[in-house]
Specification:
Structural class: alpha/beta
Bound molecules: iron/sulfur cluster
Oligomer: single chain
Largest sheet: 9 strands, mixed
Strand content: 15-25%
Number of strands: 13
Number of helices: 8
Order of helices and strands: EEEEEHHEHEHEHHEEHEEHE
Distance between the termini: 20 Å
Length: about 280
């Protein structure tokens, strides 16, 4: 799934970098560069989140991945970043550090049938560049396929590569998930998938909050979310914490005009409630 973090593609976008699957992103806030891997160059996702930043998003699955091409693109990008003039020419001072490789594309990455092979490939390339244990490997996912054996295989492989899962968790109610993510998945089913993912690889919840038609998440929505956090603690599900985002960048979906950012203090107040329910929170307004 697409990033919702305030990361900015640097001066060239995915296409102008001339690559199909690999793109660089610089984050001044994180003080470093992230190498993005997009397994959905067809802009297809099985969800249709109202805040999604993917232009021309369509419902569907990832295409067949050309693993040879992906590997050569990743090697070329890492060689440029680590041994070429990429940092000097394209990255501001203070952010000239490679932070992570992130599976974050224009759709749900685990939809790619080759997802476990992609993790193997990335592991091989990381080993060749002596990056294992030195940078993170992040999967940004809606988690909807985390109960599939091939996805679990990939998650296990990620855990061995300093991997981290950012698992989308915007709502704990069926009506909220329908409204925000436009999916009919049952919240309990999604909770089970979260538990599976978290037991296989270190996992953070990734939650985007915003006002819809000027109205922030209702008391009932907030209570259901906090109830899910309490259940995570009760069942000792090893979730690392919550990445709580506001609307950092504009939605590219038809509902864009109905969404607006919440005040920073709304996010801080909600973050405090989540902390009180038992999970650490990192807030990005
Ligand atoms: S999961 Fe949602 S935010 Fe992520 S790519 Fe799919 S529609 Fe976009």
């Amino acid at each position: 799934m697409a990033r919702i973090s305030p990361l900015t593609p640097i001066d060239h976008d995915r296409d102008s970098a001339g690559m199909t699957y690999v793109y660089p992103v610089v984050s001044r806030r994180a003080g470093g560069v992230s190498v993005g891997v997009n397994l959905n160059p067809n802009n297809a996702c099985n969800w249709a989140c109202v805040y999604c930043q993917v232009p021309d998003l369509v419902r569907g699955t990832a295409p067949e991945i050309d693993l040879t091409r992906l590997e050569s693109e990743l090697r070329a990008m890492l060689a440029d970043i680590l041994h070429g003039d990429f940092m000097q020419t394209r990255v501001p001072e203070g952010a000239r550090r490679l932070n992570d490789i992130a599976l974050s594309g224009n759709g749900e990455p685990t939809n790619a049938r080759a997802y476990p092979q992609v993790i193997e490939l990335i592991g091989r390339v990381m080993a060749d560049f002596d990056l294992i244990g030195k940078i993170k490997l992040v999967l940004i996912t809606n988690g909807s396929l985390a109960d599939r054996p091939r996805v679990q295989d990939g998650l296990k492989k990620m855990a061995a590569l300093n991997g981290e899962v950012w698992f989308k968790f915007d709502s704990a109610t069926a009506s909220g998930m329908r409204a925000i993510n436009q999916t009919r998945i049952a919240p309990d089913k999604q909770f089970e998938r979260l538990a599976m993912a978290a037991r296989l690889c270190p996992t953070w919840l990734q939650t985007c909050v915003f006002a819809f038609d000027g109205t922030p998440p209702s008391q009932g929505e907030q209570a259901a979310y906090l109830g899910a956090v309490a259940r995570i603690k009760q069942e000792a599900i090893p979730v690392q914490g919550v990445l709580l985002y506001g609307l950092a960048r504009p939605s590219m979906q038809p509902q864009a005009g109905r969404l607006s950012a919440l005040p920073a203090d709304w996010l801080e107040t909600f973050a405090d409630k989540i902390r009180a329910a038992g999970l650490p929170v990192k807030v990005s307004p």
